[in-house]
């Protein structure tokens, strides 16, 4: 069965991708992290459905990349519940 799962994740966004629009760059980065991966007790990530909230954008001392807290929904495949 396919399910929509709500995920909250802290993301350190690379400075090289700051030239892209924020939603598009974050979705591209999330696809690289989660797509076709199995998450324990959740299932296999099929796709990122949507990004619900983006919080933060703080740059911590000694880093050149902003850190965001994301809330997004992901389509997961779970053969057994």
TrEMBL record:
<feature type="domain" description="RNA polymerase Rpb7-like N-terminal">
    <location>
        <begin position="8"/>
        <end position="64"/>
    </location>
</feature>
<comment type="function">
    <text>DNA-dependent RNA polymerase which catalyzes the transcription of DNA into RNA using the four ribonucleoside triphosphates as substrates.</text>
</comment>
<protein>
    <recommendedName>
        <fullName>DNA-directed RNA polymerase subunit</fullName>
    </recommendedName>
</protein>
<keyword id="KW-0240">DNA-directed RNA polymerase</keyword>
<dbReference type="GO" id="GO:0006384">
    <property type="term" value="P:transcription initiation at RNA polymerase III promoter"/>
</dbReference>
<dbReference type="Pfam" id="PF03876">
    <property type="entry name" value="SHS2_Rpb7-N"/>
</dbReference>
<keyword id="KW-0539">Nucleus</keyword>
<dbReference type="GO" id="GO:0005666">
    <property type="term" value="C:RNA polymerase III complex"/>
</dbReference>
<dbReference type="InterPro" id="IPR045113">
    <property type="entry name" value="Rpb7-like"/>
</dbReference>
<dbReference type="InterPro" id="IPR005576">
    <property type="entry name" value="Rpb7-like_N"/>
</dbReference>
<keyword id="KW-0804">Transcription</keyword>
<dbReference type="InterPro" id="IPR036898">
    <property type="entry name" value="RNA_pol_Rpb7-like_N_sf"/>
</dbReference>
């Amino acid at each position: 069965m396919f399910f929509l799962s709500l995920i909250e994740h802290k993301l350190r966004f690379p400075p090289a991708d700051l030239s892209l629009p924020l939603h598009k760059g974050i979705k591209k980065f999330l696809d690289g992290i989660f797509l076709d991966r199995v998450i324990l007790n959740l299932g296999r990530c099929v796709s990122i459905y949507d990004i619900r909230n983006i919080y933060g954008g703080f740059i911590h001392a000694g880093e050149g990349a902003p850190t965001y807290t994301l809330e997004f929904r992901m389509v997961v495949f779970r053969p057994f519940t």
